[in-house]
Design a protein that fits this description.
The protein has a 4-stranded mixed beta sheet. With 89 residues, it is of the alpha+beta class. It is elongated and about 60 Å long.
Length: 89
């Protein structure tokens, strides 16, 4: 199995570190990246100097999806903050 690097901006992270951070196996991360590539949310490129490695770059569609998710999450928490607490009544 090749080493997988995740690239976000200027940050590279190896598959095993990504897997450890997520608490899953390297294989699970590979399956996840495959699905993200299929959905065109990330693109996969050969590492320029390490033939065993792959670089993953988030696409414009992936960035748009990320912004959408962040906006939805923010809106959810703002609604919860503004809702009166039953304990205050």
């Amino acid at each position: 199995m090749s080493t997988l690097e995740v690239k976000t901006g200027q940050v590279h992270q190896l598959l095993d570190k990504t897997a450890a951070a997520l608490g899953v196996t390297g294989r699970r991360v590979t399956v996840l990246v495959d699905a993200l590539v299929d959905d065109r949310l990330v693109a996969r490129y050969a590492h320029p100097t390490d033939g065993r490695s792959t670089i993953i770059v988030i696409t414009e569609a992936g960035l748009a999806q990320q912004r959408k998710g962040m906006a939805t999450t923010s809106a959810h928490y703002l609604r919860r903050i503004r809702r009166p607490s039953p304990l205050r009544e």
